[in-house]
Design brief:
Structural class: mainly alpha
Order of helices and strands: HH
Largest sheet: none
Number of helices: 2
Oligomer: single chain
Radius of gyration: 34 Å
């Protein structure tokens, strides 16, 4: 009895992926393109200064309670 020949698997050639140009991340708002205004910058300085002062006072209060 004749044996059937095994089929050889035909492999398809891999397609070469076309390389796309890297996309730029879009800014979440237009403010980053023009920069922040002086008023916003001063507001950040004031808030940061107040939070540092509050942290110092909190540490001083905790140190006084330990003594």
């Amino acid at each position: 009895m004749a044996q059937a020949k095994k089929k050889t698997a035909t492999r398809t050639a891999k397609k070469t992926a076309t390389r796309q140009a890297p996309r730029r991340k879009q800014a979440c708002c237009k403010r980053t393109q023009t920069g922040i205004s002086n008023q916003e910058r001063m507001h950040l300085y004031v808030i940061t200064g107040m939070s540092i002062i509050a942290g110092i006072l909190l540490c001083a209060n905790a140190a006084m309670m330990m003594v």
